[in-house]
Amino acid sequence: MMQREIHLHPKGLLEFLQFREGDFGKIGIISGQQQRAQRCLQYLENPVKNFTFLGYTFWTGFYKGKKITVGNGGFYSPDSAFVTELLCSGGIETLIRIGSCGALREDIQIGDFIVVDSVIRGDGATRYYVDDDFVAQPTQELTDKLEEIFKNTASTFKGAVWTTDALFRETKDIVNSYINKGAICVDMVTSPFVTVANLYKVKVGVVLAVSDNLITGELGFSDYRFFEAEEKMTKIVFELV
Fold first, then answer.
1. Residue 76 phi/psi, 5° resolution?
2. Which of 87, 101, 132, 160 is most enclosed, with most CB atoms within 10 A?
3. What is the pLDDT of residue 201?
4. Which residues neighbour 99 within 8 Å (Cβ) at sequence distance 6 or greater?
5. 58 - beta bridge partners?
6. How far is CA 134 from CA 150, 158, 232, in A?
């Protein structure tokens, strides 16, 4: 039988990866897709690769004198949970996620932005961290700043995201039940990202580009509006920084 309290701790894994205290910046801009991380990288001066592990890579450099860490922080709930723990354990004090989502309202279009102000946890990973009644909450001040800067430059909505683990089980009954709970979009990452940040008392904000619409059935994964939104999202976030 296992005798140790825990098999692997995030600080221990960081040490294994030869990470040193202070290697990360105080601000982290995190995406799921590798290409979004590459877009972020082009804004940094003198970026240094912190580490690559299981396909996740992080760099730290400077933007207008501020030390910033960027990288791809997970596609789904389980990997997002453990990668976010690494980032929090590594000393990042503010985390901003630039991700994508499916809209749950007919008036939200492909390429629009959603600034997340609340999270409905439908994933399985966070149940290992918190009780079912725990409310994951983005930082209000950061959320307000994201809304202000995005609304000034693009079509932007603010509201709740529902995070799910089951892409091919977004059925009518399930989706409508979460719409009734207040969700205006759905993704597979935000819940663990915000939950873990809350547990570590790290400031956290999330903005999502709309890639598809569950109400109209429109798929925009290869739509130029979505690609343009991804590019614009990166630029706007660095303006916020």
1. -135, 175
2. 101
3. 98
4. 31, 32, 187, 189, 190, 206, 207, 208, 209
5. 51, 71
6. 29, 21, 33
Query: Residue 205 pairs with which residues in a beta bridge?
Result: 96
Ordered domains of the chain (ranges, CATH): 23-240 (3.40.50.1580)
Whether 215 has a pLDDT exceeding 90, the answer reads yes
Taking a C-beta distance cutoff of 8 angstroms, is the pair 105, 84 a contact? no
Q: Over 90: is that where the pLDDT of 35 sits?
A: no
Q: Is pTM beyond 0.85 here? A: yes
Cβ neighbours for 7, distance < 8 A, ≥ 6 positions apart: none
Measured distance between the N- and C-terminal CA atoms of the chain, rounded to whole angstroms: 48
Check the CA dihedral 70-119-226-102 and report its sign. positive
Q: Quote the CA–CA distance of 56 and 70 in Å, as a whole number.
A: 11
Quick one: pLDDT band at residue 240, thresholds 50, 70, 90?
Answer: confident
Distances (CA, A) of 21 to 7, 96, 115: 22, 21, 31
**pLDDT at position 29 over 90:** yes
90 Cα distance to chain centroid: 17
CA–CA separation, 230 and 234 (whole Å):
7
- What percent of the chain has a predicted confidence (pLDDT) above 70? 100
Scan for tokens 């990452």, then name that residue: 189
